[in-house]
Amino acid sequence: MNDTLLNLVQLIISVLLIVTILVQVRGQGTGLFGSSESSFRTRRGIELTLFRFTVFLVVVFIGVSIISVRFF
């Protein structure tokens, strides 16, 4: 039961992580592997929030993965 619940949580987090990464890539420019601009810019507003949410999802995903392997 707990193993199934952890697998479901991992699945949901991984889908959210994929979506947030794809949204960030879509906002970067025309190319998939980088922006057409070579200048440095800082993240602001929704872009910063989305970046922080992505980092949070990665940390939670790694934590759930460690718990899944360690205890089940």
Sum up the structure in keywords.
72 residues, mainly alpha, 0% strand, elongated
Provide structural commentary.
The protein is an all-alpha fold and 72 residues long. It has helices spanning 2-26, 46-71. Helix 1 packs antiparallel against helix 2.
Strand content: under 5%
Number of helices: 2
Structural class computed from helices and strand pairing: mainly alpha
SSE order? HH
Helicity range of the residues?
Answer: over 70%
Would you tell me the overall average pLDDT? 83
Low-confidence stretches: none
Shape: elongated
What is the number of beta strands?
Answer: 0
Spatial separation of the terminal alpha carbons: 10 Å
Report the biggest beta sheet as strand number plus sense, adding barrel if it closes. Answer: none
Our Rg estimate from Cα atoms comes to 16 Å
* Overall tally of structural domains: 1
Secondary structure elements and pairings:
Blueprint: H1 2-26, H2 46-71
Brief synopsis:
The protein has two helices and no strands. The chain is mainly alpha-helical and 72 residues long.
